[in-house]
Amino acid sequence: MNNGRTVGATIVVLSFLLASVADGQQVRFFPVNKDIVEAHLKDAPSKNEDRKVRLEELFQDAGCKDENLANQKVNGSRLPNVICTLSGPSESVIIVGAHFDNQGAGSGIVDNWSGASLLPHLYQSLSKERRHHVFRFIGFTDEEKGLVGSRFYAERLKKEEITNVKAMINLDTLGLGPAELWLNRGDKALANLFFGVAGALELPRIAMNVEQVGSTDSESFRQLKIPSLTVHSITQRTLPILHSPADKLSAINLDDYYQSYRLLTAYLIVLDQQIP
Predict the structure, then answer these.
(1) What whole-number distance in Å separates Cα of residue 12 and Cα of residue 9?
(2) How many alpha carbons lie under 13 Å from residue 70 in its C-beta half-sphere?
(3) Does residue 244 have a pLDDT over 50?
(4) Contact (CB, 8 A) for 155 and 140
């Protein structure tokens, strides 16, 4: 990706009023072109080791490189967590995560290259202006084997590091439809803010709880009492796609997928402004 290929700044006037959100707040962000987002979604390696390499390449193309891009060796996994850091003026951290491993059935584009390949685009969009917090974008390994990568990362956070993590936003299985929240296991303040931004963008505000289906990487942080939220797109109709040969590009609604990216970009910017 060429670092300069972004759409001109989009200004969103947030006309909603929530607990700590000022009415009429302006949010400016720089979304990556839709064709690039789609191209990187379609370019999904099937092997997990190739996915790790490709994710690193996408981060580097987005401008995250050198000391800002690192691998965290994970005990019990052949592959590391891939960590891209967008520095900020404070020690407060917002984590944005998505697992990059493929369960094996189908191409794994839905679960979860749809989430992992968005991480570099979100980094690129947020890096255009100075942020209040450190943003850490993490591609987790071996989520499908029991949240291996996210548990390893979370369990090695020191007490002061846990205190500094103000939010963990997890992306898992996007583009089957509009973005939805796993509300039962999500932090209510984070969810309210998400729905407020979705309303400002005139996008649907949907909750679909999935605890009876399985788990996801946000749980590794929620157990540490870190405010966490998972964004997904699963419905009763699309649930059978997961871990099946139907997990392929044709299952994705590309318009919904790009709108989910725009929503997440705006949400992370607002989150950066609202968290003390």
Answers:
(1) 10
(2) 9
(3) yes
(4) no
**Whole-angstrom distance, CA of residue 115 vs CA of residue 171:** 5
**Is 88 in contact with 129 (CB distance < 8 Å)?**
no
Task: Give me the helices (H) in 105-203, please.
Answer: 114-116, 118-126, 148-155, 159-164, 188-200
In this structure, the chain runs to a length of 276
Q: Which of 126, 68, 78 is nearest to 100 (CA)?
A: 78
Domain 34-184+208-261 has CATH 3.40.50.150: no
Dump pLDDT digits (tens) for 100-123: 999 878 899 999 999 999 999 999
Query: 0.90 exceeded by the pTM?
Result: yes
Cβ neighbours around 6 below 10 Å, total = 18
The whole-number pLDDT of residue 8 equals 53
Of the candidates 267, 266, 272, 273, the one whose C-alpha atom is nearest the C-alpha of residue 29 is: 266
Please report, for residues 154, 207, 256, the alpha-carbon distance to residue 191 in angstroms, rounded to integers and kept in the order given.
Answer: 21, 9, 19
243-254 b/e (C-beta count within 10 Å ≥ 16 → b): beeebebebbee
Helix axes 118-126, 48-61, angle to 10 degrees: 20
Give residue limits of the domains in the chain. Answer: 34-184+208-261
CA distance 62 to 2: 7
- What is the torsional sign of CA 123, 153, 230, 99? positive
Q: Is 106 exposed, middle or buried, given 0-12, 13-18 or 19+ CB atoms closer than 10 A? A: buried
